[in-house]
Design a protein that fits this description.
47% helix, 5-stranded mixed sheet, 418 residues, 16 strands
Length: 418
C-alpha cells in the first residue's frame, strides 16, 4: 500500500513538473524537458504521452537533428483548458478569461461605488462577467476549470478547505468566500491581491527565476508578497505580506485599518493626494484619477506637489529598505497602479532611497525593478490559482466530448433567456 501510494505520488510530481515547465516555456522538446526537470528521457516521454492523451499537450511539428530522427517540438494546447482571473480594486472588478497558454481572450470591467460595495456586490459583478463570457465564448467556457479571485485583505484557508476573507480596511470582518462567491459548479480559489501579483510576477514577470524576492503592490492600499526558496510565503493563516500596515511613525496619520502611523497611511495613493489636496472632497480625487492629477502637477513643477512626491519616495524607500534588511531579497519588484507610476517617474530615486536606508551589504545585493505584467498582473495571478491546481492534478480539464455537451447546454440556456 505504501509503495503504491509512493509510486502514485512520484508520477503526480513528475507530471506536475513537466506540465508546469511546458506552460512556462511555450514550446520545448522532450530532451529539453528532461534536462530542465532532471528526469530521464523515458520518464518525460511517459508524462508527455499522458498529457497528450488528456488533450492538454500536442506535438507542433519537427526540427531536424544531426544524425538521428527529427526532434518533435511540443507545446500546450491553448484551448485544452481555460481559467478566469478576477482583480477587485475596491472601485471596480476586472474579470479576465485566459487559455492554457495564459493568453487573455476577453475582459469585463464593472465599475463599483466604493461607498456601498459589499462582498455580494462584488460577487454579482463577477457573475455578470461570467455570463458575458458564456455568451461570447461558449466553447471556451465549456473547458473552464476554475476561477481565481484576488481580494484585498487576509484570505485565510482552513484545514477543511474553506476560505474566509478578513478585509479590515473595508470593514469586512469575517466574510465566507465559499458562500458569498459561490459561482455555480466551477471551483473558486482566492488569495490576497498582493499574493496574486507575486504569483504572476514569479511565474511570468520580473521575479521569474528568483528564489528570493519581494513583490510589492502600491496603490490605494499597500501590500507585499515574498518568494522564499522559490515558493510564495503564506504565514500561519495567510496574512504574510501585510507590509503596508507596518508602523513607521508613532501618532502618525490614521490608517484605513483603524490604527495610526502605517506605511499605507503615509504613502498609499489616497494618502498622498490628501496631503496635496487636504480640503478636497475625499471621493472626488481618490484612486488613479487623483494620483494622475497629482503627478500632472509634479510634471508642471508645482512646488508643493514636487515636495510631497520627494517625501513620499523617501518614505517608500525606507519601507522597502526594512524589507531588504529583514529578508535579504535578490529583487524587489514594484507593482500596483501607483507603484508602476512611481517607478516610471522616480524609479532611480526610489532605488537610491532603498540603498541609503538598507544595511550596506544586502542593499548592494538587491535590484529594485518595475513589475513586467502591468495591469494584467493581478488578474493573471488570480487565474494562476486554478491553473496551479490543474497542473498539480487537483483539477481535471473536461474532455472534448464533455466540452461539446457543455457548450450546447450554454447555448440552450442563452436562447431560453433571449
Amino acid at each position: 500500500m505504501t509503495h503504491s501510494a509512493t509510486s502514485r505520488d512520484l508520477r503526480q510530481r513528475n507530471r506536475a513538473a513537466v506540465f508546469r515547465r511546458m506552460v512556462l516555456d511555450g514550446e520545448t522538446t522532450r530532451a529539453d524537458l528532461a534536462a530542465a526537470c532532471g528526469m530521464s528521457a523515458a520518464t518525460v516521454t511517459n508524462v508527455v504521452n499522458d498529457l497528450i492523451g488528456e488533450g492538454l499537450v500536442r506535438e507542433l511539428g519537427f526540427v531536424p537533428s544531426v544524425g538521428g530522427r527529427p526532434i518533435a517540438r511540443l507545446g500546450v494546447v491553448p484551448d485544452g483548458a481555460h481559467v478566469v482571473g478576477a482583480d477587485f480594486g475596491e472601485e471596480w472588478v476586472a474579470v479576465k478569461l485566459f487559455d492554457l497558454s495564459l493568453r487573455r481572450h476577453d475582459e469585463v470591467r464593472v465599475e463599483l461605488d466604493r461607498r456601498t460595495v459589499t462582498g455580494e456586490v462584488v460577487a454579482a459583478a463577477i457573475r455578470e462577467a461570467l455570463d458575458r463570457f458564456r455568451a461570447a465564448h461558449p466553447e471556451r467556457m465549456a473547458s473552464l476549470v476554475g476561477i481565481g479571485l484576488g481580494l484585498p485583505g487576509i484570505v485565510e484557508h482552513s484545514a477543511d478547505g474553506s476560505s474566509t476573507l478578513f478585509a479590515q480596511t473595508l470593514r469586512w470582518r469575517h466574510l465566507s468566500i465559499d458562500t458569498v462567491f459561490d459561482l455555480g459548479d466551477v471551483p473558486v480559489f482566492a488569495d490576497n491581491v498582493a499574493k496574486t501579483l507575486t504569483i504572476a510576477e514569479h511565474w511570468l514577470g520580473a521575479a521569474r527565476g528568483s528564489a528570493e524576492a519581494a513583490v510589492v503592490l502600491v496603490g490605494r492600499g499597500i501590500g507585499a508578497g515574498f518568494v522564499n526558496g522559490g515558493r510564495v510565503l503564506q504565514g500561519l493563516s495567510g496574512s504574510a505580506g501585510e507590509w503596508g500596515h507596518t508602523k513607521i511613525s508613532i501618532g502618525g496619520p490614521s490608517c484605513q485599518c483603524g490604527s495610526r502611523g502605517c506605511l499605507e497611511a503615509h504613502v498609499g495613493g489616497d494618502a498622498i493626494v490628501r496631503r496635496w489636496l487636504p480640503d478636497e472632497d475625499e471621493l472626488a480625487f481618490t484612486g488613479t484619477h487623483g494620483v494622475d492629477r497629482f503627478l500632472a502637477a509634479v510634471a508642471d513643477d508645482d512646488p508643493r506637489a514636487v515636495r510631497i512626491l520627494d517625501d513620499s519616495i523617501e518614505v517608500l524607500g525606507l519601507g522597502l529598505a526594512n524589507l531588504v534588511n529583514m529578508l535579504n531579497p535578490e529583487r524587489i519588484v514594484v507593482g500596483g497602479w501607483l507603484g508602476q507610476r512611481l517607478m516610471a517617474v522616480r524609479g532611480a530615486e526610489l532605488e537610491r532611497a532603498v540603498r541609503a536606508y538598507s544595511l550596506a551589504r544586502p542593499g548592494q545585493q538587491v535590484a529594485v525593478v518595475p513589475c513586467q505584467l502591468g495591469e494584467d498582473a493581478i488578474a493573471t495571478g488570480s487565474a494562476l490559482l486554478p491553473l496551479e491546481r490543474l497542473i498539480d492534478g487537483e483539477l481535471r480539464a473536461p474532455q472534448p466530448a464533455e466540452r461539446g455537451h457543455a457548450a450546447t447546454r450554454v447555448a440552450r440556456q442563452r436562447n431560453t433567456k433571449d
